Amino acid sequence: MFRAVISEAKEFKKVIDAASNLLDEICFEVNEEGIKARAMDPSHVALVSIDIPKEAFEEYEADVHDIGVDLEAFKKIMNRAKAKDKLILELDEEKNKLNVIFKGAATRKFALALYDVSSSNLQVPDIEYPNEILIKAGPFVDALKDADLVNDHVTLKVEDGKFIVYAKGDLNESETIFEEDSESIISMNIGENAKSTFNLEYLRDMTKAASSSDILKIYLGTDMPVKIEYDVAGANLTFLLAPRIES
């Protein structure tokens, strides 16, 4: 069986939005401890990891199940959530569907067809990073928007104790510099200068679910995948994005 109750449906919507920005489908692995999912995007450039402990739910009961869903369909349903709706997720094994129930001014029920999305057994690679930056999401997202004006790739740099978001086009450039004492920075653990270039659209998709005040953990090294972590609605979201290796 599987039944989970979330007090604010709109908050859980952020988790589904974060996954659907990069993935078409996903397998949620549920057990008595909570929900987790790991998947690569179709181009195998980005990895998405979701961990939701049972403590994040108002009510939670589950035994071991793999629940494969089409994320676009799930997202459309979650878009129907009202501001004060409670969300109930229930597995209907007989009909092979996930019941998505909103309880508010009325009780509204959707039956989401399950797909044979096999569990990937992916793990988030245990990479030693030389640099860790804790930054408010809003200023980082603004820096990505600035970079988007000049190129579709962006370079993340650690240089002389500063965290820099830089983009260069054929004619124009964009640069945002975060110093350690900036009000945007929570902390910086800098081991060495580093520089890597990434697809900008992927980075923007990875951070769309974050509110401006959310704290991003960004792990960075030279020509290494960037790792971005943040918490939404009691869920831990982790993204890895492969760098663009400059010739």
TrEMBL record:
SUPFAM superfamilies: DNA clamp (SSF55979). GO terms for biological process: leading strand elongation; regulation of DNA replication. Residues 124-243 form the Proliferating cell nuclear antigen PCNA C-terminal domain. Keywords: DNA replication, DNA-binding. It comes from the Archaea. Transmembrane segments: none annotated. Residues 1-111 form the Proliferating cell nuclear antigen PCNA N-terminal domain. The keyword DNA-binding applies. Coiled coil: none annotated. GO terms for molecular function: DNA binding; DNA polymerase processivity factor activity. It holds the Pfam family PCNA_N. InterPro entries: DNA_clamp_sf, Pr_cel_nuc_antig, Pr_cel_nuc_antig_C, Pr_cel_nuc_antig_CS, Pr_cel_nuc_antig_N. Homotrimer. The subunits circularize to form a toroid; DNA passes through its center. Replication factor C (RFC) is required to load the toroid on the DNA. Belongs to the PCNA family. Sliding clamp subunit. Responsible for tethering the catalytic subunit of DNA polymerase to DNA during high-speed replication. This is DNA polymerase sliding clamp. It comes from Methanotorris igneus (strain DSM 5666 / JCM 11834 / Kol 5).
